[in-house]
Structures are given as structure tokens and as C-alpha cells.
């Protein structure tokens, strides 16, 4: 989640844009939220000159055909690209599948970005970090789409993590790390069976440990590694 949406004063003007949403509070209480500011992590200071993407959007910056410039004309693209890479690293490390990022930012925008003329106008497009996360398969939503983000997360976990939680020996909260569709070689296409990879969010005493990964398929759940005190299902 964008650090500024959680009240961290990391924006270019030294401010924040906190969202006081109950869903976000619940996610935080469940230990699900990874807090990140790509621009600060990419080496920019607080405060810093406002910057906008000139000549395209975040994808074009990643492809080297557009730049992120300050109003004074300084090219800060490398900081934005570095911040995006570090954000992706953090997301992968935590098994993130959904991101809630600040709309319209040249890093975090997901539907719109400023048009590069520093006059307040916005155009359809996404920021540099959003572009990289999307290329890696992370679903990105703006702060005005929290309900959609929560619905997507529910759907993602509905058939997997919830069933897992209710299975003997697999209590507690689980994070979906990956969903895979194996190839059915005899049919020459992806199988209709899905395999899910899960990791415990907050291991509880007497339950599967922090290093445990569970493989799920239609036929049930199996602990593949880590310290299981409950035994495999
Ligand atoms: S880069 Fe993203 S997290 Fe950082 S201040 Fe801008 S919108 Fe917020």
C-alpha cells in the first residue's frame, strides 16, 4: 500500500493523504499490509520538487520512451524506475497479489496520471510502479476503489484460503502466494484444475509454522515444507 495513504508524510510536499477506511484498518490488523513509498525508496527526498511523466505513462518510462521530469526540467526517471523495482521486490517477498496505491501519482497512479504540463490536468494511464507491478501480475487499485480491491481479494481467497482455514490442522490466516494452472499434456492445454500456494500470515501456537507452505488442489491440502506441529492434511 502507498505509504502516504497510511499517513506517512512522504509526499513531494512533505504531506500525506491518509485514508481512514475500515477495510484498510482490518487489513492492517490482520498483518496483511506492506507499506511502501517508491519515490523515497528510489532515492528522492522529502520534500522534493513535484514531478510528472512527460511523453507517455509508466509503461513508457519503463521502456525508456518517456521521462519523469520536475517542473524545472530535471530528469528524475532513474529514481522512479529504481523505486518501482524495489516496490516489486518488496511485493514479491511478501507474496503480494493486490496493491492499493495513490491515484494520479507518477509512481502510484492506476487509472490516471498528470499530463506532464504541470497545470493540474490528468490523462488516462498509470504510474511507473503500477506499471511494473502490473507486468508482474499484481492487481493495482486506487484509494477510491477500496471496495473493488476488497472484492477482488475475497474472490482470490474465497475458494482457497477460506477452505484451507476450515480444514483440520490448518487454522489461522493464510496468504495466497500463487495460483497455478498446470498444463494438461494429453489435452495440449492448461488444466481446469488450479493449484494454490499459501503461506501462514500469523502462525498461532500449536499450528503450522512460519516457514510452512501449503499446496492446495481440488483434492485437498498438503504441507510441503516448514515446521508442522499439526501434521499434514
Ligand atoms: S510515491 Fe506513492 S507512496 Fe510515495 S508519496 Fe507518492 S503516491 Fe505516496
Would you give an account of this structure?
This protein has helices spanning 22-29, 38-41, 58-62, 77-94, 128-135, 146-158, 161-165, and strands spanning 51-54, 67-70, 98-101, 112-114, 122-124, 139-142, 174-180, 183-184, 189-190, 195-200, 213-217, 220-225. The chain is of the alpha+beta class and 233 residues long. The chain folds into 2 domains: 3-154, no CATH class; 159-225, no CATH class. Helix 4 (77-94) crosses helix 5 (128-135). The radius of gyration is 20 Å and the shape is globular. Residues 226-233 have low confidence and may be disordered.
Question: Quick recap of the structure?
Answer:
The protein has 233 residues and is α+β, with helices and mostly antiparallel strands.
Layout of strands and helices, then pairs:
Elements: H1 22-29, H2 38-41, E1 51-54, H3 58-62, E2 67-70, H4 77-94, E3 98-101, E4 112-114, E5 122-124, H5 128-135, E6 139-142, H6 146-158, H7 161-165, E7 174-180, E8 183-184, E9 189-190, E10 195-200, E11 213-217, E12 220-225
Parallel strand pairs: 3-6
Antiparallel strand pairs: 1-2, 4-5, 7-10, 8-9, 10-11, 11-12
Helix pairs in contact: 4-5
The structure holds iron/sulfur cluster.
Iron/sulfur cluster (SF4) binds at residues 2-4, 10-11, 37-39, 102, 105, 107-108.
